[in-house]
Design a protein that fits this description.
Its cofactor is Zn(2+). It comes from Ladona fulva (Scarce chaser dragonfly). Keywords: Metal-binding, Methyltransferase, Transferase, Zinc. The N terminus is likely disordered. The chain is α/β, with parallel strands linked by helices. Helix 5 packs parallel to helix 8, helix 13 runs parallel beside helix 14 and helix 14 packs across helix 15. An 8-stranded parallel beta sheet has the order 1-8-7-6-5-4-3-2.
């Protein structure tokens, strides 16, 4: 009934803003969209661009709704990689059909529609650009950002997120553009404990993000919950040394990545089509939620691999702190309690917290290693192989890349 009233008259019950919510308690983010939609046939692996907001809006809408039901307090509009330059990079045809403006506007509309079915906020997101990786100027890169941000402002989104940046310089430029709108700004980098790709430490990255204007700082993507929280801890220490304050945010992968190098899971040979054996269980995510909360993180969500049941796990672990439970918990008794109704006695015997907390899941893959050797090519912004161009990768270029990969592996 409450959600129906809000849809009819959104102004009747104003929602608390993101900074107010973080001051008062915990905010639960959503999960991964492009990986989920790729598996379902709505996103193309490789470019990972979100033209699905225009081509298949119902698929995007339903995923938002699943995360809302699981306990998400934020509907992050599906604007990842939706800059005009990314839509046209390396043979991507999306930019020939839809403009970045159209994709971003559709994403804002879908996120707002579902957010207003509950008490969720809507955020628009910027991510790294081919323009920066090609070594272009600050002015050129910020033009890319300004085009997207204008759509977020036109749709009156509640706050802005700069996420998935490997270089602190680029995220500083993104934060500056977002801060000029007057809206709250969250900033998360896809880095691990070693810092950004140009050697800036995690602590210094946090300091620079706050000085650029970010209200919320942390990490997203590239690494698992454990490694991500280690990085957030280093960020927190850096802020404390500098005498700066900001809310902390964590949105890691739902994949175990203890063997990943500096650039995270994209260096793993399983990326992106064979990561399933690394998926975190819901119990792994409950542990993550508790550790994040105890570290002082108050914006807790997930990125690639995070499904609605992972978000529900966060909600259930922090139910006492939040004073509420998600709608999805109605179909999920805590710690496997519903198994008491199972017909098999040995399954009924598993209906306890002790059982699931102490379980060590098997992979079911005989003779497979528990960890992999990451590729670690060591290329970053300005490298020739990262230069932006609209033409598709040629057969000659592919052979050169494949030969380089073989040589790199043979040296390890």
């Amino acid at each position: 009934m409450e959600s129906k009233r809000r849809r009819k008259n959104p102004e009747a019950m104003p929602k608390k803003g993101i900074l107010e919510r973080l001051r008062d308690g915990v905010v639960i983010g959503d999960g991964g969209f492009v990986f989920q939609l790729e598996k379902r046939g709505y996103v193309k692996a490789g470019p990972w661009t979100p033209e699905a907001t225009c081509e298949n809006p119902e698929a995007v809408r339903q995923l938002h709704r699943d995360f809302l039901r699981a306990g998400s307090d934020v509907m992050q509009a599906l604007t990842f990689y939706a800059s005009d330059t990314k839509l046209e990079n390396r043979g991507n045809k999306a930019g020939q059909t839809f403009s970045g403006k159209a994709i971003n506007a559709a994403a804002c509309k879908l996120a707002r529609e579902v957010a207003d079915e509950g008490d969720a906020l809507v955020a628009g997101g910027l991510s790294q650009t081919p323009t920066y990786l090609s070594g272009r100027s600050k002015k050129e890169v910020q033009v890319d950002f300004q085009k997207q941000v204008q759509v977020f402002v036109d749709n009156n989104l509640d706050f802005l997120i700069c996420e998935y940046f490997e270089h602190v310089e680029e995220i500083e430029w993104a934060i500056e553009v977002c801060k000029a709108t007057g809206k709250p700004v969250a900033a998360t980098m896809c880095i691990g404990p070693e810092g950004d790709m140009h050697g800036v430490s995690a602590g210094d990255c946090a300091v620079r993000m706050v000085k650029a204007g970010a209200d919320i700082v942390g990490v997203n993507c590239h690494f698992d919950p454990s490694i991500s929280l280690h990085t957030v801890r280093l960020m927190k220490e850096g802020l404390e040394r500098a005498g700066l304050k900001a809310f902390l945010m964590s949105q890691p992968l739902a994949y175990h990545t203890p063997d990943a190098g500096k650039q995270g899971f994209i260096d793993l040979p399983e990326f992106p089509f064979a990561l399933e054996s690394r998926i975190c269980t819901r119990w792994d995510i409950q542990k993550y939620a508790r550790e994040a909360y105890e570290l002082g993180v108050r914006y807790i969500g997930g990125c690639c691999g995070f499904e609605p049941y992972h978000v529900r796990a966060i909600s259930e672990e922090l139910m006492k702190e939040r004073g509420k439970k998600s709608m999805a918990t109605e179909k999920h008794d805590l710690w496997g309690g519903g198994l008491l109704m199972h017909t098999k006695p040995w399954v009924r015997a598993r209906a306890s917290r002790e059982y699931w907390e102490n379980l060590r899941p098997g992979s079911g893959r005989p003779y497979c290693p528990s960890m992999s050797q990451p590729d670690e090519w060591g290329v970053t912004a300005g490298s020739q192989v990262l230069m932006q161009h609209s033409e598709a990768t040629t057969e000659k270029e592919f052979k050169e890349l494949a030969n380089h990969a073989v040589k790199t592996r043979s040296r390890k």
